[in-house]
Design a protein that fits this description.
This protein has 22 helices and 10 strands. The protein is mainly alpha-helical. A 3-stranded antiparallel β-sheet has the order 2-7-6. A 3-stranded antiparallel β-sheet has the order 8-9-10, with no helix packed on it. Helix 3 (36-43) runs antiparallel to helix 6, helix 3 (36-43) runs parallel beside helix 8 (136-157) and helix 11 (240-251) packs antiparallel against helix 17 (386-399). It is globular, with a radius of gyration of 24 Å. The chain starts with a helix and ends in an 8-residue tail after the last strand.
Length: 570
Amino acid sequence: MKTRYIFAASLMLLGLVSCDKFLDTMPDNRAEVNSASKIRALLSSGYPANTYLTFNEYMSDNVDNLGDDNPGTNRFMDQIYTWSDVTEETNDSPTNFWGESYLCIAHANQALDAIYDLTGTSSIAEADAIVAAGYGAEMAEALLIRAYNHFMLVNEFCLNYNTQTSSKDLGIPYMEEVELELNPKYERGTVAEVYEKIQRDLELGLKYVSDGYYQVPKYHFNTRAAWAFAARFYLYSEQWDKAVEAATKCVGSEPSSSLRDWQSIGKLERDRDVRSYEFVKSKYAANLLMLTSYSAFGYYFCYPGITKYSHNSYLSFTEVGYAKNVWGNEQTGWRNVSDWYYMSPEWYNGATFDCIAYFKIPYMFEYTDPVARIGYAHAVCPAFTTDEALLNRAEANVMLHNYDAATADINIYIKSVIKPTYFKKDLTTEDIVAFYSAIENGTWDKPTIKKKLNPAFNIGADKGIQESMIQCVLGLKRMDQMAQGLRWFDIKRYGIEIWRRTLQPDPKAGQYDAAFKPYRLDDVLTVDDPRRAMQIPQDVVSAGFKPNPRATDKPAEIVHQPKSLPVSNQ
């Protein structure tokens, strides 16, 4: 972990300090945090500077392989796309995300330690005394930071939480104290144990969170962001009633007033910089917590700079944003499709390239040497939005059999995205069930907007009503969260199988048709595939940390199954 290496480096530096100054130096070379202002400054470093966007999006079913000979890739992207154990290190790699997340946790723990010293307490068990001493808001932010970073780590590097197996599934270390040992040994524990501690920290943080001392609230765990986090946590931990309550506290009594204003964005120039910068503005009510990071994701996915693995038109027209959906649109061509969709992305295509690009995450480049044209790529992303909170409430209500309440939220969301010409009346629960029950589950060569769901919890209630409603919500979430990295978590929670297929250009396709078609099935991420838990970074494993298990053999029958399409566009 980064904290371990930082501490070791500090010990090396201490060896260079004279004996006279030794007793005046902090034992681990940390700055002394002895005031509320210093605690707040420390907590500003508790938000990760590395992001999950790239590996989550490219591990998901939002991309296909556009051909063996396509040069638009690199070794890191190849490893991510194939769910391989990642050995390449970039700012977007799992290794850096792991280290940065634990560094944020270390900052939160150091802040809590300072709070204990300043208030004469010893743990969060004495929360009332901490609040009475005037440090309740600082304690709340530290706890929310600690809970969030552990939540992201456990959902990336472990199997998804479920009440059936999580008491046995490998977890990650839950760091609750400032690390003072040179070479500490950590036990992974279980996913269930990690979730229990997240919930403890989250709920205490919710109790005392305050927007009062933030100068820029959207870059901290403000109150609404905290409730959005709670809604996601409770949804993932199958606490449906609490998820509804938390989401309601986030979106308020009039959710439509706080959703993203897609209509205004849709009127802007169709330029990736214009629209992506607009998407991440903190002034908008929909953006609840903004995270800045060192990342080339805006270039990879939204630019688009990676051409081999693409959210292509075939995928979009059959499964996601441009597919026929429950609101009843009848597309007759891609030009008409652009007319009905406020979120309308851009379509880039050519002889060997095909991409539907969503202009959400900007590609910001900081030149450290303008002459040599070198520097750092940056990204800004909303970690939580009101749109997600609303759809999380809809999903939780479906699990509680509150179908009409879920339908009401579905209608609110669709109205913010679909133009009135194509959504003339509110849907009923019966409309949704009729639409989804008539669709077959998609396959790799015959995809649909519906995929077989295999969650650990039951979704077969009420003669298929529940599953149809879940299919609708998951479809809307996939569309809403495109290029935001959250689809991967729904794939894990619902046991959705992902196929890795190669598409090839169809020489008979017209200029404005989806030119790529499925040619070959290369791999399948099955329901019980251990690769659903991303591998622990290799340097951490080398230090003695237990790695995630891996299957040793890949089923031969799912590899290289060509269809009767040409290998290349002749």
